[in-house]
Amino acid sequence: MDLSYINAFIVGGVICAAGQILIDKTKLTSAKILVLFVTSGVILTALGVYQKIVEVGGAGATVPLTGFGYNLVKGTFRDVDQYGLLGAFTGGVKSAAAGITAAVFFGYLISIVFTPKAKR
């Protein structure tokens, strides 16, 4: 039996549970939690820890916000190795471009299909 699905479910679930605990038990806003998760992904990747989490959890580790930070750092490291200092400015953007484009595109499509309402 392939455990990759179970591992992804567990790792992704733990990350999401941590976010839910932060929402329920702290006064942090959603925006601050978002920044905390992306920044945590960046720091853990820079320290070499998040790669090990990705190896175990696969998509369960790369899909949540921490995975976005991981993706930024991974692209930056790759481009710094290839282009030097210029890669520090281009690598993260290039590695995250597809995900950002998809989020904007599908967000736009959903806004056309449904009537957005402001939260009160």
From TrEMBL:
The keyword Transmembrane applies. InterPro entries: Spore_V_AE, SpoVA. The chain crosses the membrane at residues 6-23, 30-50, 95-114. Keywords: Membrane, Transmembrane, Transmembrane helix. The keyword Membrane applies. PANTHER family: STAGE V SPORULATION PROTEIN AC-RELATED, STAGE V SPORULATION PROTEIN AEB. This is Stage V sporulation protein AE. The lineage of its organism: Bacteria, Bacillati, Bacillota, Clostridia, Eubacteriales.
